[in-house]
Design a protein that fits this description.
Blueprint lengths: L1 H8 L11 H23 L8 H20 L5 H20 L8 H22 L19 H22 L2 H17 L2 H14 L1 H6 L1 H18 L1 H18 L12 H15 L18 H30 L4 H11 L6
Helix pairs in contact: 1-2, 1-4, 2-4, 3-13, 5-6, 5-7, 6-7, 6-8, 6-14, 8-14, 11-12, 11-13, 13-14
């Protein structure tokens, strides 16, 4: 009944903006997935059991609803739609996949093909064979920015690397090489770092054995990546400083969903009013993107929202790690990338 009710809720969505092609495709996908979930629920003899993560997702969803109604004072049509899609996806996938069996080979193959496709498309754009989705960047894949493309490839590359180390499958190995080339083409420092951290986890025994060399290499890489795009790094540092200061004004409930842009703009005005001679003046940028999803949640949803989100991510990562699942490395890469970008 829950899955059927969620499908019917899709007919109640009304938005003041026109849906893009990708949003329309996503709506059809979620509706189809919901119908499959209804069928699986009816045919399955044993009902899905509630887990601790299910309870956290339910409580978090209720908290977001309260935040929208009583705290937020900003336009939320698109953001509410995105949140609704995430909740529906979780419910439907959770109803379809109820057991804790081994990692599905089909899912790994699908992720491998998706990562290879994006990598090849990005390299074709780099060579001028295919057009990008924006004139300002040479490599975007099917995205509008090379940053999310790099993170996407890093996530797929992480799970494929883990699977290759366990199986030594030549097809997976070839896919890893192709995705490595695609990852380099994106020039995304966040994606490089995320995949680098995954490699450290995969080869932790070797890293621990030669920790001095590993530490020197890591520090050297961090310094090099900083100076490659120093202006971008300084701009993100400023945004983090300002966002943290704004969060302290509303620590528990936050500014409300959709309030990050307002909070950061207000915070930058106050910051430069007090520090008019700051070196950050030269690297001030737009405030519509957070480049740190955790700070964005703190600013908009307060400490309560952050605890909910970190609890869900933490429990999920812990369970995947305990099962020695390759999906742990993919999810870890995504969570790490959220510290420095907008995945």
């Amino acid at each position: 009944m829950m899955s059927f009710g969620c499908v019917m809720l899709l007919t109640l969505f009304r938005f003041g903006t026109t849906w893009s092609d990708s949003e329309s495709q996503m709506a059809w996908y979620i509706t189809s997935l919901g119908l499959v979930a209804v069928g699986v629920t009816v045919l399955r003899k044993q009902n899905a059991r509630w887990s601790s993560i299910d309870v956290l997702v339910l409580l978090y969803s209720l908290y977001l609803l309260v935040n929208v109604v009583f705290v937020s004072h900003y336009p939320l049509a698109h953001q509410t739609m995105m949140i609704g899609q995430c909740v529906l996806l979780y419910v439907f996938v959770r109803l379809i996949i109820t057991d804790g069996g081994n990692v599905s080979q089909a899912m790994i193959c699908f992720m491998m093909m998706a990562g290879v496709y994006e990598s090849v498309l990005g390299m074709m754009q780099l060579m001028g064979i295919k057009d990008t989705y924006t004139d300002s960047m040479q490599v975007t894949g099917t995205f509008f920015n090379s940053g999310p493309l790099g993170i996407y490839i890093a996530v797929m590359l992480s799970i494929c690397t883990c699977h290759y180390l366990r199986t030594r499958n030549k097809i997976i190995g070839f896919a890893v090489v192709v995705m490595l080339m695609g990852l380099c083409a994106t020039w995304s420092r966040t994606a490089w770092l995320a995949y680098g951290i995954v490699l450290i986890l995969l080869f932790k025994s070797l890293v621990i054995r030669h920790w001095r060399i590993a530490l020197l290499l890591f520090v050297g890489i961090i310094i090099t990546l900083y100076f490659v795009k120093q202006g971008s790094a300084d701009s993100r540092a400023l945004m983090n400083i300002v966002a943290f200061k704004e969060w302290k004004l509303h620590p528990w409930w936050g500014y409300g969903l959709g309030g990050y842009v307002h909070a950061l703009a207000h915070g930058q005005i106050e910051f430069f009013r007090i520090h008019s001679d700051s070196a950050y003046v030269a690297c001030t940028g737009a405030t519509n993107l957070a480049f740190n999803e955790y700070l964005k949640v703190m600013v908009e949803q307060g400490l309560i929202g952050l605890v909910f989100m970190l609890s869900i991510l933490g429990f999920s990562l812990f369970r995947l790690y305990r099962k020695h699942s390759p999906f742990f490395y993919a999810m870890f890469a995504l969570c790490f990338a959220a510290l420095f970008s907008y995945p």
